[in-house]
Every structure is written in structure tokens, then in C-alpha cells.
Queue: 2 jobs
Job 1
Amino acid sequence: MNLVSAGLSDRGRVRPRNEDALLLRPERGLFAVADGMGGHVGGDIASRVAVDVLDELGPDGLDAEQLRSIFLAAHGAILRAVSADPTLSGMGTTMTALRVRPENDGCLIIHTGDSRAYRFRDPQLHQLTRDHTWVQDQVDAGLLQPEQARAHPYSSVLTSALGIVNGEPEIQVVDVPCDAGDTILLCTDGLTAGLADQDIARLLSREPDMDAAARAFIAAANDAGGSDNITVALVRLLASGQ
Ligand code: CA
């Protein structure tokens, strides 16, 4: 698989620390974003533990079951860190990972929490992940409109994350058909809090350079208030030989 990729993580304009984490391993076709939370100091530890476990356990040629077991290993590693240091109690993290298969035969997305993966096939932007949030449950039940969910006071209440649930986290696996020219975006909710889907699509359509697009996403989210940490990973698939 030929690809070009870029990624950036930014503290934003309000939060004192950046609790997001970013993993870019283009040589292995492996990418992830994670959004840590909770505890006095724990959020940045939880997100870092999760992407480090993925980095260490994620060899070439990962399949869906291996990715799922790596997510459960990350969940266990966070729980063990809390057992060893109770001041970390309550920490947890989202994680959304992309594995690009060789030979242009598609991508795997593995996900828990409210970070997101999108596929952009100009001009269509398609959200690949389902938010594991209370408001998404209400939308799915027909009790809230999607636009109400974005501004809802409970919009950040998660129903699944690594490290913070009783029992196993809910892990979504998506097998995504991908073609040369498609772009996959992974992002934490600091991006989607400030930018609607049409803003994301417009920016990707206008900016073919992945590094420039990543910088433009951070700038746009900060222009929208920068109320949260912002992390993006961008991967454009190329035809072989390109
Ligand atoms: Ca966040």
C-alpha cells in the first residue's frame, strides 16, 4: 500500500495540558488517536499507555481479531497502572486506530469512545465510527436530533472507553473499502466540537497536501474556540507506483 500521511496534536486554547496521544507508523500502515480523561494527572498517561501498547503489540499484517485483542491489552494495562498507583484512579481513554492493508484491499478501523474515523472520497465525507456516547444512544433511539446532540450538556458522557468501564469496553471493528485517492481522517472530539462535517469535507477538498491539511485542521479548531485538545491523523491512499 502506498500512502502519504501526516498528524498533529495540539493543546488547544483552554485546557492546561494535552491529554490526547497520536501514533503514526506509516511503514506499518498503522495509525491511531487517543483522548485521555480523568483523574488528577491520569488522562495523558492513559492515552499514552494505549497508543504505546498498540505500537508495541502491532506488527505488520494485523487482522481484526489481533487488533481487538490489542485494544483489550491496552484496557488491561490502564487498569493495572491504576492498581499500582491509586492516585491515577478514574483515568481512561478513547482510541481509534487505522490499519491500512497492503495491496490496496481496504482498511480496518478499530474504535472505542468518542474519537472518530472518517473516509473522504471527494466530495463525500463518510463517518466510519459510531460515537460511544450517551447522546449518540439518544439519537439512535430517536430521542435527540444529531444537531441537538452536538450542543447537549451531556455530549461528552462516554458509554465505552479503555480503562474506565466495568467489564470489557465496547470495541467497534469496521472493514472499510478503500481506493487510491481516498483519505482517512482520525480525530479526537476537539476537532469535531469545532468543525461540522461539511467544514471537514471542504477543507480536505481544498487541501491535497496532508501536512498542510493537518495544520489547517488544528488552526480551524483553534479559530472555533480551541476549547479542547485537538488531534488529527490523515492518511491518503495512493495507487501503487504513484
Ligand atoms: Ca477531548
Note: The first strand starts at residue 2 and ends at 10.
Job 2
Amino acid sequence: MIITLTGYMGSGKSSVGKELSSRLGWPFIDLDGYIVHKKGMSIPEIFATEGETAFRSVEAECLRDIVTMHQLTGENAVLSLGGGTVTISSVQHLIFGQTFSVYLSASVDTILQRIGGTDSGRPLFDVDKAAAMLEKRRPLYEKAGLTIVTDGKTPAEIAQEIIDEKEKNI
Ligand code: S3P
């Protein structure tokens, strides 16, 4: 089984993913990290040289690779998606139909507190546009099988909540 974590930039997908993987004893995969490894370029470099459309095709290809590989081997994994992976219509059926998908819901305030004042290496992050972009994407994130409100919670608390909910669902 793959547990996918989705949510806006700065919603804690990577830190919760690592915590969850260590609690479950499952491998952790970060989709952005996988893309960087495959392309040999950083995310900002890919956006700058090839643009968002090309980035989304690589992102979709990497996600398909990971899901197919795990379906063939039957291995478990915790997979943190990028904040925009759910916007790629050709992979939505994989995320929501083939994995245990979890939306880490964070308020704009929480997001801005986490990554607002930093150069976080996220080409699409803009303090002034974060609220509108989050609202636009929210219906897609909400397609996940499970939504966890993360405001004010630690990665350890969130990971445990996911484990508890997953056990109820199986
Ligand atoms: C993006 C989110 C980023 C990364 C890329 C695009 C987005 O991932 O995939 O910069 O469109 O929201 P994180 O959510 O891990 O920052």
C-alpha cells in the first residue's frame, strides 16, 4: 500500500511523511526529491529552464513510476506529493483511486508562518497569492480519502492521527 500525503506548500507533507514512515517502518519517498534525482536539477532550476508544464509532465511520470513499481512488488511506502501534484488531471485517478490519500489541511496563517518569510525554493509560492491559490486547489485536495486538520499539531501527533484513522478504514 502507498499512503500519499497531499496539501498546499508548507502544510507539512515532508515532515509528517518522515514521521509516519518511521512509525510504520515503511520507506519514505518525497516526490520532489525523486524528481530532482531523476532530472539532476533542483526544482527552481527545472521551473526556470523548462517551465511549469514540463515540470508537471515529469512529476506525473515520476508518480506513475512509483505507483506502478509498488503495485508490482506489493511494497508499502509513504509518499509525500508536491503541493500541485493533484492539479495534474491525468494522475488524479492514481492518487485518489490507487493509494490511501491524506489531505494535510493547513490554514493560510499556518502556511505563512511556516514558509512565508523565507526563500523556501518554491517557485510558485507567493505570500500575496497563497490564500487564493489554496482556495482554488482546496476542492482537489478534498478528494483525498482522509482529511487531517494540522493547525497547532506536531508532525508526531498528525502521523499518529493518520495511523489511527487508517486502522479504522481497513
Ligand atoms: C508546488 C509545490 C512544491 C513543488 C513545486 C510546485 C506547487 O512542492 O512540487 O515547487 O505547485 O504547489 P511542496 O508542496 O513540497 O513545496
Note: Residues 9, 13, 32, 43, 82-84, 122-124 surround shikimate-3-phosphate (CB under 6 Å).
